[in-house]
Amino acid sequence: MSFIALVTLVVRDYDEAIAFYTDALGFELVEDTDRGDGSRWVVVRPSGAGAGSALLLARAKNEAERGRVGAQTGGRVGFFLHTEDFARDHARMTAAGVRFLEEPRHETYGSVAVFEDLYGNRWDLLQPA
Length: 129
Hints:
5-stranded mixed beta sheet
């Protein structure tokens, strides 16, 4: 086993999730396949990630799943988006409407700021030291 290929992120709506991840975060849409039963197989990943980890955007299909949208990690930062240019990506994401919960911090391990996706899931934008 060489890497984790996909992590599922439960979303409210496929198209709004695709728009956020591609437009605001700059991810690429890898696949959007209609499964014929009203569901779709939607995969996005950071541009330039190659065959690395990607997100499977799965539309919530029942009340239990809808209740988890935006709260999949219990309010903790659950996702870590690495960058090679923190200042550039922070500025681009801010201009695209991404909501950062704090000012950028410069820690011993790198530059970091916590942001929320469109559902409230918390992410770190991180440029390792």
